[in-house]
Amino acid sequence: MIKIINPLDRRYFALQKQNQLVMKCEPLAIVLFKEFRSNRCNYCLQESQTNRCSNCKQYFYCSISCQKSDWKQHKNECQLLNKIGREMPCNMLILIRLFQNNVDILNFYGDVDKDIDQNIYQQFFDCAAYIVKIASLQNESFAKLMSIQVKIHLNTFTVSDINGDTFGIALYTPANFLNHRCIKTSPKQQNIANCSHFFNNRQLIITTNNSFIQNENDPQELCISYGNIINFKERQQFLKSQYGFICECDRCLQEQTENKDQENQDLFNKKQQEYLTLLNKQKFKKAFSILEEIIIEMPKYYDNDNHPYIGWKMNEASKLGFHLNYLIKAENYSIQAIKLLEPYYNENEQFKELVGRLKDIKAEIKMQK
């Protein structure tokens, strides 16, 4: 179980084991990037044919059921969005949703006077002034809008699908209180992220990873990586611009001191791109070979042998291997994928498809004997 040592520090400590569930969180608010709004449901987040809200024309849903589920929040913002009458960036959409629904995020980290630079302050000022004017709000609402924007800026999670592709932003609690450390890339590194996070549709899931050291007399602070950017300088720039700090974890100090070569990590990224290119060209045998190399290398980039995204990549290998009639390999990848995914995705349609495919693979193997 999670144990909060000192709530005033807004940190979480635990006596957890490796690869154990820490928490599951539902979003306080979630919005999609512009390019995904028309082909992905704004509530269940599934890719689908959608219909937009006829009044505000800002939110899209795959079904009446999802629209009704989201109405609890959307009913309080719909008229204001209609009055604005233009497509808005996701940071403005999530601001309006939180403000109009009076979502309590006062205890979230972020202070207008301390935690943002002048350029960001001016952006937030202009946005708050615009909303106050268009919604005919009282002047005291301005300060609240400013405060919410700072907390959004410093606490949002970028939401991704099972392949790790990002499509929106969301606020989650208590996951927002987990501090950042980078993912371990060397055995020498100790002060690093000891938890992994991933998404099951709307739900954020946090588990401990390979770097969690169980010590009954010394609870560890639970930390996640805010952005798994491989290049040291790019990672530091991202953390500074988005979250307002420079990371001083063991990995960053090591890379800063040693000027660590990024060749291996760059090669891994190239392999992933090559795999997608080969798939598009329908060169499936070569793509399968590259995919197997990617799966072998993935655990060190997540510092987690059991990260579900590895399971979903194994699911791809299962599907492609079955198509190529590599039945034994397809069976092995299916079994491994099910083991990694079942604790978190047993109701997921793609997981059910994987389980069904394994039955078909076993039947095919039996027929060929």
TrEMBL record:
Gene Ontology molecular function: zinc ion binding
Domain MYND-type: 41-78
UniProt entry keywords in alphabetical sequence: Metal-binding, Zinc, Zinc-finger
GO cellular component: nucleus
InterPro entries attached to this UniProt entry: H3K4_H4K5_MeTrfase, Znf_MYND
One Pfam family matching this protein: zf-MYND
Chain segments annotated as coiled-coil in the UniProt record: none
Descriptive protein name: MYND-type domain-containing protein
